[in-house]
Write a structure and sequence with these properties.
This protein is an alpha/beta fold. The chain has eight helices and seven strands; from the N terminus they run E-H-E-H-E-H-E-H-E-H-E-H-H-E-H. It has a seven-stranded mixed sheet, with helices on both faces. Strand 1, helix 1 and strand 2 form a beta-alpha-beta unit. Helix 3 packs across helix 6, helix 5 packs parallel to helix 7 and helix 5 runs parallel beside helix 8. This is Glycosyltransferase family 2 protein.
């Protein structure tokens, strides 16, 4: 049976983490998970330990890329076949994990849980950056990615090892674009996402604009100069 690890990066998610993990365990007990506490300043780590959750507790805040890469390195070292990026804020729904895995097994390196495969993007200021990043990816790769900013992404073993071993591989649209240019097969599955019910996102209007500009410039310019190292696999290990 193929082994899937669900990686849950968490930073200051004391209001959400217990509910998210318990719901995940209830809906998908067949899959392993790990919470990567990214140097939270609140009770995120303490609550995980009190509940007996599988936890990697980073002593300092590394940011989403560092926390995510920590989880994928753990997946690679433990010999998992697949890894899923799953948000700690409650927006991602466990019901879509099995369909994403099935789509992955049909022949994909990355599967994105997308809000806009069969549904149209709303024409709002909030979606403007999503439109621009989709356009930049299509312009540079010829591939249409409907929801490039979705944080619900599944990776096969080859991608797990690539992310685990390369320091400049963040879970962001520019890396997805870069991997497409290098032959990765990316597919999308229509999903629904919930609104955050507690806590607050670090992405306010100013940070969102900065993020979209950074991603656009990276996709259009910087990725052309990025060098790709050969993929080296960790020795096969099983839990």
């Amino acid at each position: 049976m193929s082994k899937l690890l669900i990686v849950i990066p968490a930073y200051n998610e004391e209001d959400n983490i217990v509910r998210v993990v318990k719901n995940l365990k209830y809906c998908c007990p067949q899959y392993d998970y790990v919470v990567v506490n990214d140097g939270s300043r609140d009770r995120t780590a303490a609550l995980c330990r009190a509940c007996g959750f599988n936890l990697i507790d980073l002593p300092v805040n590394l940011g989403l890329s560092g926390a995510f890469q920590t989880g994928l390195r753990y997946a690679a070292e433990q010999g998992y076949d697949y890894a899923l990026q799953f948000d700690a804020d409650g927006q991602h729904m466990p019901e879509y994990i099995q369909p994403m895995l099935e789509l992955m097994q049909s022949g994909a390196d990355i599967v994105i849980g997308s809000r806009f495969v069969t549904k149209k993007k709303p024409k709002t200021l909030r979606m403007l950056g999503n439109y621009l990043i989709s356009w930049a990816i299509r312009l540079t790769t010829g591939k249409v990615i409907c929801d490039p900013t979705s944080g619900m992404r599944m990776f096969n073993k080859r991608m797990v090892n690539e992310f685990a071993l390369n320091l400049n591989y963040g879970p962001e649209p520019d890396t997805i674009s870069y991997l497409i240019k290098n032959g990765a097969v990316v597919k999308e599955l229509q999903v629904e996402m919930q609104e955050r019910t507690a806590g607050s996102s670090y992405l306010n209007l100013t940070r969102s604009a900065e993020y979209m500009f950074k991603m656009g410039m990276s996709i259009l310019l910087i990725q052309w100069f990025r060098k790709r190292e050969p993929v080296t696999f960790y020795p096969e290990r099983r839990l």
